[in-house]
Amino acid sequence: MPSVLVVDDNELARNLIANPLTEVGFSVDTAAGGFEALEKFKASHHQMVITDILMADGEGIDLIRSLLADTPDLPIVAVSADPRTNETSSLGMAAKMGARKTLSKPFSALELLAVVGSLLATEDEAQVQPA
Fold first, then answer.
1. What is the pTM of this model?
2. pLDDT tens string 71-84
3. For FRET with 59, which of 19, 30, 81, 82 sits at 20 to 30 Å CA-CA?
């Protein structure tokens, strides 16, 4: 199973994301913020990143920008409790920066697994398509 890096400054939120992924067999690493996430990603090159957008040590937008600068094909899922649903919301900005999917908190484990599964299916299809 792919390796997923889960980034959120709230420990409960990190666990609510990481636990369902672990239960279905993903290798999950966690980080409490953007700086820690960059270090862990550079060390392990996870196949997917799920990041909160509004964090104490830096915006998830900056993390997305940094990750995609070095790994442009990296699937990133942005999550946020921002109640706004327009392009200027945190999730709207994350999508503009390159997050492939967004989830508005709170979301269910089933919603999370469906999003992760759809991204991984897309990645698998891209790898088997002829050039």
1. 0.90
2. 999 999 999 998 77
3. 19
